[in-house]
Specification:
By secondary structure, this protein is an alpha+beta fold. The strands form two sheets. A six-stranded antiparallel beta sheet has the order 5-4-3-8-7-6, with helices on both faces. Strands 1-2 form a two-stranded antiparallel sheet.
Length: about 260
């Protein structure tokens, strides 16, 4: 096999499992559409996951959902669970201060995954973004903040994953990495913006402001984002009014992570 060329069957299998995990309970037809896999192929992949116990069919209808066995695939990420526990009170406090919903996201492959959010705490939102919702790194504020502050080694890993994928999101990511201007600006200013979010449930209606979140040792763990109505605030207004609050919340999360290490 040529180096760097993915195994198509594995790629499709991951896409199917991700679709069921993200959208389940879900019909076979919608699995095929969501994973962008031909229907007969989706059927065979689902049958494989049924055999392995990672997916189950609902007894009363032809819909599929993941089982608790999928959690074993993430046993190496207990630190992120700790991050969510430590961050939760600071997310709630920040949401009360700014009124807009707050999300905490970490990197999963070439996407940022929402680990926790306060969308249910405020009426200033269109949708409740649940834990597990993902966005392309190069097309969201949390991803840009993460990409700018992660290590060179991790950035290279993301770069190689984008090279092996041919879609609009990966092409945008490669374009961003081809020039350091954007990432250097994010590092200098300490925040990232995404005007008119396109890869969410309400394309073009919201914008986001994000800051990096580090652990007690200064190592990057994820990003914190404030999501607001694009029609309500201009980007410079959002930065002027809310950036200090967000940076303070990120600092408090780092202090909280340090406290857990001392316990």
């Amino acid at each position: 096999m040529e180096r760097g060329v993915p195994i198509r069957a594995i790629t499709r299998g991951i896409a199917v499992l991700s679709a069921v995990s993200r959208d389940g309970p879900i019909t076979m037809m919608n699995i095929s559409k969501s994973a962008n896999v031909p229907y007969p192929t989706a059927c065979r992949i689902v049958q494989t996951f049924l055999h392995e116990g990672l997916i189950e069919r609902e007894p009363a209808r032809k819909r599929y959902r993941v089982t608790s066995l999928v959690q074993t695939l993430a046993t190496g990420f207990q630190t992120e669970d700790q991050l969510v526990a430590v961050a939760r009170p600071h997310l709630e406090e920040l949401c009360k201060e700014v009124s807009w919903p707050i999300s905490l996201a970490t990197r999963v492959g070439t996407r940022m995954m929402v680990r926790d959010s306060t969308h249910k705490m405020t009426s200033l939102t269109f949708t409740n973004y649940y834990p597990g919702y993902t966005l392309p790194i190069a097309e969201c504020a949390t991803g840009k903040a993460y990409l700018a502050h992660c290590s060179d080694e991790e950035r290279q890993t993301i770069y190689e994953a984008w090279q092996a994928t041919d879609n609009e999101a990966s092409r945008m990511g490669l374009l961003m990495l081809s020039d350091d201007v954007v990432l250097n600006q994010i590092r200098t200013e300490g925040y990232a913006m995404q005007a008119r979010n396109l890869y969410n449930e309400e394309p073009g209606k919201t914008s986001s402001l994000a800051v990096p979140v580090n652990d007690a040792n200064g190592d990057l763990m994820g990003s914190l984002a404030m999501i607001y109505f694009a029609s309500a605030l201009k980007p410079d207004q959002a930065v002027a009014e809310f950036l200090p609050n967000m940076q303070k919340a990120a600092e408090n999360i780092a202090l909280g992570m340090k406290a857990t290490q001392l316990d």
